[in-house]
């Protein structure tokens, strides 16, 4: 039978069907197919179907074809027949289908034995079938499969576009793509620095994306002959110890090794002049299952969308900081164990040594936090990265846009340097906010400034096991400290009462407590002059020292005595009783927390 098909260039990477599915199609099924060898390989994908009779047919194929033949090209000698089958198997065809009758009534043993030795599916047809009908039917299946791939890729692209139109950025797009691929997805810079990692959600037993990246990094470093990080200063941006930087995986100007076989790697265009400039690389790794052609198609379309997002917002610094913020949040919420945390932190460039870890959080005031993200957060992330290189200690810093928080871990040499390092880091954080957002921070700490300064809280230093819970505690304390008078930084140990009252702020008993303890005084101050609440606050702030209280209020002692006596009568309390003083102090603090 003459050659019946050729491969069109338009479908150079079509969808596929399996050999088993092809044998089930009516055109082949009518030929009464009998599987002689390779029954365990019938799930091989069929990339195309070809019919031919020439002895050198293997040289015309690319691999993945289902070859139809009557056996004329097999030759008459056993050596020719073995060579015919061997070259087809080495070419990587999907299956060999031989129609009996024209040349053979049964396939020679040399053909069957050679196919069996190579694991090649060999099928003989006991009834004549028109090969053109077979090729048309299989081609239709392939085109339909390819169209289904395109539809799936279009659906992913549509959903990613919707995420972007709703205000989502690169993290949201990557998480959606990871869910579609059911495998971890990474966005890296052109030189291999990790910007963001996302994994498929909601399945137990999945490898953490950062652990997967760590394995990829190690494999690449091995193939790159130990060149990773060459020539970088300690704590310099991009070096292994730079704050929040995983460091490049290859030296500048050198080609980055490719990820493992079966991965999908797509370049995100942009980042320089010329049509071939690369801004980033989208990498999908087959950690949980194999990747299909649809994943590459979808990745290529997603890469174009990512290029647009990065171009609009210049998000690289923000992305890296958000990725570190996600890690710190997962650590705080105990979604990462203390055993796994050090390795994942190393992937993010944090190598603190054997000393304790100091958790800290900077909370931005509600009016100061730029909730729109974009250029504002990118600017802050870039400035923080630059400023923290001068701290003199390894720092892992992230950003949490929804909460307006900047969590970080600082590596200490010893617990005794906690206060000094906290002071330096807090000063650096606040200075970075002023530098990044000068138009939004008029004179931090200036009385009467329209926007409040950020709040920095330092926790207790400890090991990795304590770092997560302490980060969570410090984050809550930072929220509670937003309403306190401004100071360079807060020690979490001094915020325990404020944190307790902040957590009870919505509880009805707290309002009832305030009303019982100082309610009469509040009622008095609504109508009477002068108000007495400031006098009570100053008196308690100075621990009952009347001379200091009078000086702060700018009144003489007798006036102060008269006011204190009126307060005692209104409240029916003894202001010299320690328990009364404690209740009044708590009530005044609780009053600030009431909605």
Automatic annotation (TrEMBL):
InterPro entries associated with the record: CdaR-like_regulators (IPR051448), PucR_C-HTH_dom (IPR025736), PucR_C-HTH_sf (IPR042070), PucR_dom (IPR012914)
Signal peptide residues on this chain, from the entry's feature table: none
Source domain of life: Bacteria
Bias kind Low complexity: ranges: 234-244
The PucR C-terminal helix-turn-helix domain, residue ranges: 532-590
Listed Pfam families: HTH_30, PucR
Ranges where the record places region Disordered: 223-270
Gene3D superfamilies, alphabetized: PucR C-terminal helix-turn-helix domain
Purine catabolism PurC-like domain segment(s): 23-142
Protein name: Purine catabolism regulator
Organism: Streptomyces zagrosensis
Organism taxonomic ancestry: Bacteria, Bacillati, Actinomycetota, Actinomycetes, Kitasatosporales
């Amino acid at each position: 039978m003459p050659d019946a098909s050729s491969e069109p260039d338009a479908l150079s990477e079509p969808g596929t069907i399996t050999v088993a599915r092809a044998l089930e199609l009516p055109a082949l099924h009518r030929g009464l197919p009998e599987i002689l060898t390779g029954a365990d390989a019938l799930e091989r994908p069929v990339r195309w179907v070809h019919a031919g009779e020439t002895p050198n047919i293997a040289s015309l194929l690319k691999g993945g074809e289902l070859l139809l033949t009557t056996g004329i090209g097999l030759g008459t000698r056993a050596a020719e027949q073995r060579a015919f089958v061997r070259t087809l198997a080495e070419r990587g065809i999907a299956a060999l289908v031989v129609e009996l009758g024209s040349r053979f009534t049964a396939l020679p043993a040399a053909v069957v034995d050679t196919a069996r030795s190579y694991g090649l599916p060999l099928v003989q047809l006991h009834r004549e079938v028109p090969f053109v009908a077979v090729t048309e039917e299989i081609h239709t299946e392939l085109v339909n499969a390819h169209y289904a791939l395109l539809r799936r890729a279009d659906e992913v692209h549509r959903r990613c576009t919707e995420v972007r139109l709703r205000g989502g950025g690169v993290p949201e797009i990557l998480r959606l793509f990871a869910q579609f691929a059911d495998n971890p997805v990474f966005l890296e810079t052109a030189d291999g620095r990790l910007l963001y990692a996302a994994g498929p959600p909601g399945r137990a037993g999945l490898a953490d994306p950062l652990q997967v990246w760590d394995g990829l990094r190690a494999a690449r470093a091995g193939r790159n002959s130990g060149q990773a990080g060459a020539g970088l200063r300690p704590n310099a941006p991009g070096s292994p110890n730079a704050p929040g930087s995983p460091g490049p995986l290859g030296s500048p100007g050198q080609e980055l090794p490719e990820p493992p076989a079966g991965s999908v790697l797509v370049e995100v265009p942009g980042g320089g002049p010329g049509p071939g400039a690369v801004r980033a690389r989208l990498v999908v790794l087959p950690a949980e299952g194999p990747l299909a052609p649809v994943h590459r198609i979808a990745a290529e379309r997603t890469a174009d969308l990512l290029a647009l997002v990065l171009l609009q917002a210049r998000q690289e610094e923000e992305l890296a900081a958000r990725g570190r913020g996600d890690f710190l949040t997962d650590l705080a919420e105990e979604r990462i164990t203390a055993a796994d945390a050090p390795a994942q932190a190393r992937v993010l460039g944090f190598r603190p040594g054997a000393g304790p870890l100091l958790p800290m959080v900077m909370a931005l005031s509600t009016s100061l936090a730029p909730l729109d993200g974009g250029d504002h957060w990118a600017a802050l992330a870039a400035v923080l990265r630059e400023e923290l290189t001068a701290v003199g200690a390894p720092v892992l810093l992230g950003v949490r846009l929804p909460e307006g928080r900047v969590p970080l871990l600082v590596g200490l040499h010893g617990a005794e340097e906690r206060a000094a390092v906290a002071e330096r880091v807090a000063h650096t954080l606040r200075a970075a906010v002023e530098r990044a957002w000068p138009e939004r921070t008029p004179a931090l700490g200036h009385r009467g400034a329209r926007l409040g300064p950020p709040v920095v809280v330092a926790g207790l230093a400890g090991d990795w096991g304590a770092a997560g819970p302490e980060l969570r505690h410090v984050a809550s304390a930072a929220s509670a400290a937003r309403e306190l008078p401004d100071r360079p930084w807060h020690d979490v140990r001094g915020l325990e009462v404020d944190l307790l009252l902040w957590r009870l702020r919505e509880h009805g008993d707290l309002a009832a407590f305030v009303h019982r303890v100082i309610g009469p005084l509040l009622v008095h101050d609504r109508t009477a002059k002068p108000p007495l609440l400031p006098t009570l606050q100053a008196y308690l702030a100075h621990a009952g020292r009347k001379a200091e209280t009078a000086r702060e209020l700018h009144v003489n002692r007798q006036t102060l005595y008269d006011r204190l006596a009126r307060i005692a009568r209104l409240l029916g309390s003894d202001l010299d009783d320690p328990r009364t003083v404690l209740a009044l102090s708590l009530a005044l603090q609780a009053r600030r927390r009431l909605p």
